[in-house]
Amino acid sequence: MVRNYFPETLSEALKIKRDDPETVPVAGGTDVMVSKKDAGSYLYLAGLKELKQTCVSGDDLVIGAGEAYRELLEEPLIPELLKAAMREVASPAIRNSGTLAGNICNASPAGDTLPPLYCMDAEVELSSMTGDGQVTARKLAISEFITGVRKLNKRPEELVTAVVIPGFKKTNGMKMYYEKVGARRSEAISKLSFAGLCLRDDNSKIISDIRFAFGSVGITTVRIRDEELKFLSAKDGRYSDMAEEITNDLDRVLKPIDDQRSTAEYRKRVSLNILKDFLQKCSEGSL
Amino acid sequence: MISFTLNGEKVESRGNGNERLLDVLREEFSLTGPKEGCGEGECGACAVLMDGRLTNSCITPLANAAGREVVTIEGYSRTDRYRVLEKCFAEEGAVQCGFCTPGMVMAAEGLLSVDPDPSEEDVRLAISGNLCRCTGYNMIIKAIMRASKEGKGLW
Q: Does the beta-carbon distance from A26 to B63 stay under 8 Å?
């Protein structure tokens, strides 16, 4: 007999997760319901008001884990780069139900929202209840939270309760770039995707910050801070020369595979072309 | 028991929370308007409205309908809005085999209820999660555009 839990508060949900750690959390259900294997136990979170809040806390933007794409697309606080990716997720009906936190927890190499979240140094808030009923929370960088294909760095008793964008106002001040390549416009799992952010002073033409991340070209989203810093270190603003070097470096780093959606060769070639285009636009200030 | 509002009436389902809303609608409540096409949220033939928003009932656990307002094509067909869509679908030739039609009509309502005066691009986006293997879509798009004009004031 399948066990179904309908918690009415977050603390009740955390208690259930502590006492039945194998229970599968369900928010919109759009991934869980497609998975062919039945779990013995489900914990339904869609009704929890505590997870349906998005607010500013200091410099951070805190996005409730129960927020569906549709709600976030209507929320003015959400960074445009993240919105650009969310608009490309699946279809209108799925965007009405599916959640941002669910996209993270699904830990697919092709997760549409992951490259923007990596660019923004997003963090995942994990909450749990101790034996004596205390609720505790910790935060992990998204790159430490997702460790492989469908693999999460999460203790069994923990629930993801929020997605945090630290220093989101600074991020919102940066120019953005987003590209998803899929077989059709809607309902397409990406062949590859790319997100980039750039902060350039138009007077001095100096780029003071740059971030870029690739989806569907490795077991997790690929973002390499050292390469970004290398680009920023270009002497006398000669970013174009540096762009070539960075592209060559990434040619060695990206390790896509052949699968039913695309080939390794196509994925690498197009990803590098997009990177080149992004770096060129950053250099020229034409983003 | 899981209770929700179904086509305007309060109902209780005997189903388990992890059952697909689609199966509950079709088998327990004998509402066969929502169809199973792909069974994985790709085709939109199972689409219903939940609290006014387009939802694929094949990937919605019954649990998520608790306390919500679910409207299927059967309930929607009793509205004036439906009658405008029905007429425009018929006159534009937007229905051939009819399997996708309930989902298409629900997708049209999902759009028009928030955007009563959509562009063609808006309509294309709104039905982008609904597959039709007969019409090639153009007639459906024309029908929805026409309904938005003929039904002015209804949405």
A: yes
